[in-house]
Amino acid sequence: MMNKEDMLKKLADCVCDMEDEEIVDAVQEYLAAGYDPQEGLLNGLVEGMRRASELYEEGEYFVPELIVCSDAMYAGIGEIQKALPEGAQETIGKVVIGVVEGDTHDIGKNLVRIMLETGGFEVHDLGRDVPISTFVQYVKDHDVDILCMSSLMTTTMPGMEQVIIELKKEGLRDKVKVMVGGAPVSAAFAEKIGADGYTRSAIEAVAFAKKLVEVK
């Protein structure tokens, strides 16, 4: 039997090498060995997608390759989700999540959603390329504890600040905690726009969300 490090590498390789038909068997083998599903998700599947993204940035992969890589990753996620612990019987908080307007990159957002759900949160996913007004209207119409926004493009980051501005105009800012994330986002940016926090990874997002709920 392969050790954990080799198995994680195999998962990452399946994603990065576009082996979307082999990934489910690889995940099942990993889980059958008794290894941690969350580690397989983050250090296996997500790591493979990170490597694929680097190849895209270097010009070795193009959009069609990235699509097949993401298909492989999501197929693996679907299998790993079966082994993740179920969320609490009673939700510990309600979250609305989405990618800001102008940005269609949603892999990171999807991972955060999955981790929040398995962490016991009730999550409503607005999807990607979400208009500012949609975020604000959802908070206005629903009892939400946390609003999560992500962006992978510096050109769409100002949309996060605009959402917070509109929440203030509508008298809703005190109703909800705001979390932001994404590759170009930083803690300094979060503080600048008046968000309640920033996290670098899906696991960090869960831990921070739980703290925000406790504070609220």
Structure description:
This protein has 216 residues and is α/β, with parallel strands linked by helices. The protein has helices at residues 4-16, 23-32, 37-57, 63-81, 107-118, 132-141, 158-169, 187-193, 202-215, and strands at residues 94-100, 122-130, 146-150, 177-181, 197-198. Strands 2-1-3-4-5 form a five-stranded parallel β-sheet, sandwiched between helices. β3, α7 (158-169) and β4 (177-181) form a beta-alpha-beta unit. α1 packs across α3, α5 crosses α9 (202-215) and α6 runs parallel beside α7 (158-169). The longest helix has 21 residues, at 37-57.
Number of beta strands? 5
Q: What's the quaternary structure here?
A: single chain
Please tally the helical runs, counting DSSP H or I stretches of 4 or more residues: 9
Rounded radius of gyration (Å): 18 Å
Order of helices and strands: HHHHEHEHEHEHEH
Report the β-strand fraction as a percent range: 5-15%
Shape: globular
- How much helix is in the residues? 40-55%
Average pLDDT level = 90
**Structural class by sheet pairing and helices:** alpha/beta
Give start-end ranges of low-pLDDT stretches: none
User: How many strands, which pairing sense, and closed or not: the largest β-sheet?
Assistant: 5 strands, parallel
**Largest beta sheet: what is the strand line-up?**
2-1-3-4-5
Cα separation of the termini? 47 Å
